[in-house]
Amino acid sequence: MKAVIVTIGDELLIGQVVDTNSVYIARELEAIGCSIVEKVAVGDTVEAIGGILERYQNKADLVILTGGLGPTKDDVTKKTFARYFNDELVLNQEVYVHVKKLIEDYYQRPITEMNRQQAFVPSKCTVLFNEAGTAPGMLMTREKTAFISLPGVPFEMRYLIDHKVIPYVKEVFKLDAIVHKTVLTAGIGESLLAEQIEKWEEELVSLNIRLAYLPKLGQVRLRLSKTGTDLEEIVSEMDGKIEELKLLIPEYFVGISDADSLFDELVPLLKAADITLATAESCTGGSIASKLSSVEGASVYFKGGAVTYATESKVSVLGVQQATIDRYTVVSEEVAIEMAVGARALYKADIAVATTGNAGPLKGDSDAEVGTVCIAVATAGGVHSYTFNFGKPRSKVIQASVEKVWMLLYKYLKNKV
């Protein structure tokens, strides 16, 4: 079946509010076999919303709208809904009792006329009762298309998707099997990767497997997708092609993962390996430590981090030798090595990672070209160091450095688990 998701609100169009609703709806629908063919954002006007209803009539099996169901005058979705179906708004007694009780019990004030208006729905609609808020969902069908209107408040929308919409879709529509598998690659750019797997990608077409490239600094995710009736056959085909890919690019193949980033793969490895980690950062300014400590339970594996941004702090905090700095400059593998060794000793960690570089726009205390970053990883077995140039601008250099750290740590830990 084909589904369309429509988000409503001027605040979405001007970027004042980030749309997370369509992401959640798409993910939940895809999980049960719906094909999302389009996502659209429109303004809070009768013309815009009515135009959307007409546009997808009989072109989609299901249209889900979210937003514009509040008590204020600028929320016109419900009125447009009723007009499109040649219907009128009537007071739903069950919804009214719920709204009245919620306002009087939770907010401890009398219900107003504006609150009462939320209990009005098209007379012909199926009400999707909203236990999580005051605005009910509404379901109406016309010819070959079902239209569902949901509130835009995220937790209310999620409640209705989980408890009302998904059960309805499962009951009414014939759903195909939809399989997505994502392969994570690292250390190779999108264009070069495409060249190396060109023949393999062509073979996917004959199996009706779609391939999408999802690039990010330092990594590219390859998402394989197929829709059909035989789930086992689809999975078998995909697994076979992924095994071929693993042999084709062994040095870049990380694994099958639905994670959004390499970092999400790294954390479970740290826990599984029972290894503690410390950081010493200069050019990355604490970005690595901040990400590590953002995860619940990080104290199990993260011992601590030092942001030794100034040259003198590298000496006083981490024990970097001034002679090393004088000879090799502050942006050098030699200094990165001593930073990593110092952090490992300072925090009594199993491994430590260090970054020092020139993120720009000025060269700072080194003559190294802008974009140059040195990274070192210190373990009980020794220290490995690397030099990279991530170009410009500053924000890209810092982000690329952090992503490279995740990759180096991932490769090390993968051999330990």
Oligomer: single chain
First CA to last CA: what distance? Answer: 42 Å
**Broad structural category:** alpha/beta
Proportion of helical residues: 40-55%
Number of domains: 3
Largest sheet, spatial ordering of strands: 2-1-3-8-7-6
Uncertain regions spanning at least 5 consecutive residues: none
- CATH architectural arrangement of the largest domain: 3-Layer(aba) Sandwich
Tell me the name of the CATH class of the largest domain. Alpha Beta
CATH homologous superfamily heading of the largest domain:
MoaB/Mog-like domain
| Biggest sheet statistics | 6 strands, mixed
> Which percent band covers the strand fraction?
25-35%
Q: How would the global form be characterised? A: elongated
Rg for CA atoms? 28 Å
Contiguous helical run count: 16
Number of strands: 17
Strand and helix map with partners:
Elements: E1 2-8, H1 10-13, H2 21-31, E2 35-42, H3 46-56, E3 62-66, H4 77-84, E4 89-91, H5 93-107, H6 113-116, E5 120-122, E6 126-128, E7 137-142, E8 145-150, H7 154-172, E9 177-186, H8 190-196, H9 198-206, E10 210-216, E11 219-228, H10 231-248, E12 253-256, H11 262-273, E13 277-281, H12 287-293, E14 302-307, H13 311-318, H14 322-328, H15 333-347, E15 351-357, E16 372-379, E17 382-389, H16 394-414
Parallel strand pairs: 1-2, 1-3, 3-8, 13-14, 13-15
Antiparallel strand pairs: 4-5, 6-7, 7-8, 9-11, 9-12, 10-11, 15-16, 16-17
Helix pairs in contact: 2-7, 3-4, 11-16
